[in-house]
Amino acid sequence: MSIGRALRLGVRTALLVAVLALVYLGVTFVQVLQATSGDSHEPAQAIIVLGAAQYDGRPSPVLEARLAHAVELYEAQVAPTIVVTGGKQAGDRFTEASAGYTYLRRSGVPEDAILREEQGANTWTQLAAATVLLADRGIDDVVLVSDDYHAYRLERIAQELGLRAQVSPIDPGLSARGRVQRLTRETVAVAVGRVIGFRRLVNLE
């Protein structure tokens, strides 16, 4: 094969790979976007609230919105247990989970209905630790509460961890620009995670 022919073949192959990658990303974006409008909360064994920032024991607006939604689900008898998740950043006095616990107690949720996972630093580690915590109690049927743009990746991570999971998301109230940025980031994360596994993806974030 001549050098010119080999070069043309290489260019065509590269173009084909690029087109396939764009199609894959496009399909993934649509899946991530569609998941933002879903809300599934059939009766389950537990509600898991994914952690978010807290300020000296006070939930950030995002975390508060997640917790408030979890309280609504609990009061609607979707599940008898709420799991709050999330560790703390360097210098923090409180974990995200402890801030969540305090909020739930003040909202009238009984102490024995709340479990805390206080080590997770990201979505995968929070959900993985919560899975172990619940497995000790024979629980694997859960409703996950997080932001809507995060719903599709949550479902995939839950599958990877062996959970039977539904997602009941909240609208985090992002600007149009912020929403596009979040959806784009999630699209890339899902696209890569499905190839290498979401646990490995944590090491790339």
Task: Outline the structure in words.
With 205 residues, the chain is α/β, with parallel strands linked by helices. Helix content is 53%, strand content 12%. It has a domain at 46-173: HUPs (Rossmann fold). It has helices at 3-35, 61-75, 96-106, 123-135, 151-161, 176-196, 198-202, and strands at 46-49, 54-55, 58-59, 82-85, 114-117, 141-145, 164-167. The protein has a five-stranded parallel β-sheet, sandwiched between helices. A two-stranded antiparallel sheet has the order 2-3. Helix 1 (3-35) crosses helix 6 (176-196), helix 2 (61-75) packs across helix 3 and helix 4 packs across helix 5. The radius of gyration is 20 Å and the shape is elongated. The mean pLDDT is 91.
CATH architecture of one domain: 3-Layer(aba) Sandwich
**Top CATH class of one domain:** Alpha Beta
**CATH H-level superfamily title of one domain:** HUPs
Number of helices: 7
Largest sheet: 5 strands, parallel
Structural class computed from helices and strand pairing: alpha/beta
Low-confidence stretches: none
Biggest β-sheet: strands ordered side by side in the sheet: 5-4-1-6-7
Average residue pLDDT: 91
Q: Which fold name corresponds to the CATH topology of one domain?
A: Rossmann fold
- Helix and strand element order: HEEEHEHEHEHEHH
* Percentage beta strand: 5-15%
Helix content: 40-55%
Instruction: Tell me the number of strands.
Output: 7
Distance between the amino and carboxyl termini: 43 Å
